[in-house]
Amino acid sequence: MENEIRERSVEVDGMTLTLLHKDGKWVFPLVTYYQHGLGTPLCLALLAYVEDSNEFESETVITVNLPGAERSAGCQFIDTNNNGEEVLDWLMLYGLCTPTGRYAVSGFCKYPEVDFYQSERFMKQKELCDRYFNFVD
């Protein structure tokens, strides 16, 4: 488990991006949206930086879309089933979210809900991604 904040900046295609350290890799948090669910549900994916090619590859999707589960605006469920419980600690370490204390259950899995909109860092990342990477109608 990461217990200290480590960041670095890289320039990719003329754009300076801030990377965060997770499990021995440098990752870019990509804020995007799921296509199904009430209110354009948030999706947080991590893209791993590949230094040799100065490009990114898909690392993991941190959130899970549960269209039938009730959630508040700016909130989403964290996929601890595929990312482990420690992913929640990592998100909080970097100030990307605040746990709400609520959970959703799907199958045999229990997913914690977090509020992303309470995080200034998340909102800045969302603004960056919406401006340069998301093409939502």
Topology overview:
Blueprint: E1 7-12, E2 15-22, E3 25-33, E4 42-50, E5 55-61, E6 63-64, E7 75-78, H1 80-83, H2 86-93, E8 98-106, E9 109-115, H3 120-132
Antiparallel strand pairs: 1-2, 2-3, 3-4, 4-5, 6-7, 7-9, 8-9
Features:
five-stranded antiparallel β-sheet; alpha+beta; 45% strand; 137 residues; four-stranded antiparallel β-sheet; 3 helices
Briefly summarize what is shown.
By secondary structure, the chain is of the alpha+beta class.
What does this protein look like?
Pfam families: DUF4313. The chain is of the alpha+beta class and 137 residues long. It has one domain. It has three helices and nine strands, in the order βββββββααββα. It has helices at 80-83, 86-93, 120-132; strands at residues 7-12, 15-22, 25-33, 42-50, 55-61, 63-64, 75-78, 98-106, 109-115. It has a five-stranded antiparallel sheet with strand order 1-2-3-4-5.
Spatial ordering of strands, largest sheet: 1-2-3-4-5
Q: Based on DSSP secondary structure assignment, what is the total number of beta strands?
A: 9
Poorly predicted regions are none
What is the succession of H and E elements?
Answer: EEEEEEEHHEEH
Regarding quaternary structure, what we see is single chain
Number of helices: 3
* Largest sheet, strands/sense/barrel: 5 strands, antiparallel
Task: State the helicity in percent bands.
Answer: 10-25%
Span between N and C termini? 38 Å
InterPro entries: DUF4313 (IPR025462)
Pfam families: DUF4313
Protein name: DUF4313 domain-containing protein
Organism: Bacteroides cellulosilyticus CL02T12C19
